[in-house]
Amino acid sequence: MDFVGVFVWLSVVVTILSRSHADRNVYPSAGVLFVHVLEREYFKGEFPPFPPYSKSGDASNDPITFNTNLRGYPDRPGWLRYIQRTPHSDGVLYGSPTSEHVGKPTVIEITAYNRRTFETARHNLVINIMSTEEFPLPYQAEFYIKNMNVEEMLASEVLGDFLGAVKNVWQPERLNAINITSALDRGGRVPLPINDMKEGVYVMVGADVQFSSCLREVETPQNQLRCSQEMEPVISCDKKFRAQFHIDWCKISLVDITKVAPVHSHRPDPGTGVLPDIGEYDPPAESLKSRDYFADFLITLAVPSAVALVLFIILGYSMCCRREGVEKRNMQTPDIQLVHHSSIQKSTKELRNMSKNREISWPLSTLPVFHPVSGEVVPPIHPDNYETTSMPLMQTQTNLQNQIQIPQQQPSGKWYS
């Protein structure tokens, strides 16, 4: 029996197991993709019809969601994933068990919720992982398919078509689907809801023969250069996939596990989970002992105060005891500058004393003026009680009251008053 026939037979087995009306036992193989469909038609029979239904066909459209978890734990095992796109679509459990889970039955609790009637139904799925001599297949290739979602790729017909195309290109004797991962789980972005865009999916397959020349074409320098320039590489066998699957050849990964150095991790043996017996609990006494805080006082207050005192003494010595003084400054200053400075200081002091003391006699420019023609004594422009300091010392007599203009003789010989 060829591989496609074996895969179709396995798909039929998975479908039959999914539709049985009882808690199920399934037997996946380690290193081979495991898919289990949670069909809404099966769980709808567990919910009684709701009385207010006006039509008999309304019950078939009830929104049903599923919750899956490992029995006794809130989540599923690390290798098992679950997806359900809408409450009106089937749920899918999928993943790839490893050899570490062989011989350990895994019980998955499946709870179905009817979002209209609020009824629930619970079943158990017992996963018995079997070992296989073909695992692991030495040559593994991972393809990135851009025009598929993960739930579409998990369908047995679509996955069978893809494996058939890979087998036609690779020509192996044994070919298995190892794992399927959504591009969103690899850091991909959610596509825009236009033009029927897909999120993309990674599909890993394994075979027992070397990679074909077609698959090796992605490693050529020309195609690597085109990928670095974000251009589509030239692959001769791309047309065998293009009719149904759009593959991003720049993201294909070819791994030969026979050439990969194994990594051995030394893990400690797990214990029983029970703490050793170390005796009874001895709580502290209720009465607390007195504590001496003198040492704390010295550290928190006395030491900073001593440091501050030392800094104060140093600062005082620098500012008071290290001053040069006026005498030293005068000795280093030229005599002419000292004379100028002294005269300026004397003039400034005299002016300040004059502005403060108003009892002294007025300057001659501020005394009454004797008119030489009329003989009249004209008073000064300011009163005797003038107290401001903004008045200049020299006064002009252009605006004096009772001023008499002296007639001037014109060249023409006429007199004008």
TrEMBL record:
The chain crosses the membrane at residues 297-320. GO terms for molecular function: calcium ion binding. It is found in: Cell membrane, Sarcolemma; Cell projection, Dendrite; Cytoplasm, Cytoskeleton; Golgi apparatus. Residues 25-136 form the Dystroglycan-type cadherin-like domain. Residues 1-22 form the signal peptide. It holds the Pfam family Sarcoglycan_2_C. SMART domains: CADG. Belongs to the sarcoglycan alpha/epsilon family. InterPro entries: Cadg, Cadherin-like_sf, Sarcoglycan_alpha/epsilon, Sarcoglycan_C, Sarcoglycan_N. Component of the sarcoglycan complex, a subcomplex of the dystrophin-glycoprotein complex which forms a link between the F-actin cytoskeleton and the extracellular matrix. One of its GO terms (cellular component) is cytoskeleton. Keywords: Cell membrane, Cell projection, Cytoplasm, Cytoskeleton, Glycoprotein, Golgi apparatus, Membrane, Signal, Transmembrane, Transmembrane helix, Ubl conjugation. It is a single-pass membrane protein. It comes from the Eukaryota. This is Epsilon-sarcoglycan.
